[in-house]
Amino acid sequence: MRYCIQPATSADVAFLALAMDPNSTEWGGGAELEQANRLLNTCASSTQVWAARDRTGTPYALWGVMPKSDDFEVGCLWLLACEQFGVETEELLELSGLVLAEMLAQYSRLENFVDVRKDRAIELLRSIGFTVEPAALHLASGKLCHRVWLEAPSLHATATADRPALLN
Question: 149 Cβ partners below 8 Å, 6+ apart?
């Protein structure tokens, strides 16, 4: 494996926040600053934030989870993986499985809403074992979204001979 997973640092978050706009070397305000502030607030609200780093220590992806506001047994999962770094889908699947096992040790279920236009994210989540519900209007965002969710037994069920179960 070309990556290691460790708890994320503020440097990991800042690096990936800047990487979301590959033409920017510093914050110029406006949309970039708003996007960075959302990421920082999301990280601050999360009970777990993990970073995948390469052998040189460069972060390539972040995973986080925070308790759902109306049910603290359910974790609201989020993921930031920058496509320009070329993380292969299979690697992202393997790394995600390791992180999700840790999250499911804390929460009985992981869920979130994913914009229907995020095809890569939806397919990744489906490949990991998430249930992807039919698209519906998400009232909080006003967007058409799929509700996605995963329970610990679902992660066990997706294990194969090639990809063993990550939970004991």
Answer: 109, 110, 111, 130, 131, 133
Residue 136 sits at φ, ψ, to 5 deg, of: -150, 160
Could you tell me the residue ranges of all domains in the chain? 4-157
What does pTM read for this prediction?
A: 0.79
Q: Please tell me whether residue 151 adopts helix, strand or coil conformation.
A: strand
For 4-157, give the CATH class.
alpha beta
Rounded Cα distance, 89 and 148, in Å: 18
Buried b (16+ CB within 10 A) or exposed e, 101-115: bbbbeebebbbbbbe
Token code pair at residue 81 = 């993986």
Predicted confidence (pLDDT) per residue in 51-97, tens digit: 999 889 989 889 999 999 888 999 999 988 766 555 577 888 888 88
Q: Which of 75, 57, 55 is nearest to 66 (CA)?
A: 75
Residue type, 5: I
Q: How does DSSP assign 35-89, residue by residue?
A: HHHHHHHHHHH-SEEEEEE-TT--EEEEEEEEEETTEEEEEEEEEEE-GGG---H
What is the sign, positive or negative, of the torsion defined by CA atoms of 4, 6, 11, 14? positive
